Amino acid sequence: DIKLDINEREGIKTIDLGSIKIPSGNIQVRSKLVSYEGNFSILLNGELILKSDNMTYRILMPCLLSIEESCYRVMMLIPGYDSPLKIDEGLYEVVLTLRWLANGYGVFNLKLYLEWSK
């Protein structure tokens, strides 16, 4: 669980999520807005970095969450976000960077997870 306190209209936060062992195959970041309440707007973008001794994968996640804000992005498929990303087996250090524009007061619960397939 990650708690993100947003006290400024815009900001950035980098979170070290530890390490994860991933077998060879395909991964894709999935997100689900579980709940939100309050009177606020937010546009949240993310970047997930998976780094092993041999490889580094960067998964950009534009428009990760948009509540009462317009979000515009380049119309292309992003491997690992919009479509599966082929990944080598390994132990990966995982770092998540979140960037936001927000206004008002409220809370939200956003679930992020990696989906793996062969």
Average pLDDT figure: 93
Residue ranges: pLDDT <50 for 5 or more in a row?
A: none
Oligomer: single chain
Shape: elongated
Tell me what the structure shows:
The chain is mainly beta. It is 0% helix and 70% strand. It has strands at residues 10-22, 25-51, 56-67, 85-87, 90-117. Strands 1, 2, 3, 4 and 5 form a five-stranded antiparallel sheet that branches. A hairpin with a 4-residue loop joins strand 2 (25-51) and strand 3 (56-67). The two termini are 27 Å apart.
Helices and strands in order:
Layout: E1 10-22, E2 25-51, E3 56-67, E4 85-87, E5 90-117
Antiparallel strand pairs: 1-5, 2-3, 2-4, 2-5
In short:
With 118 residues, the chain is mostly beta strands.
Keywords:
70% strand, single chain, 118 residues, five-stranded antiparallel β-sheet, mainly beta
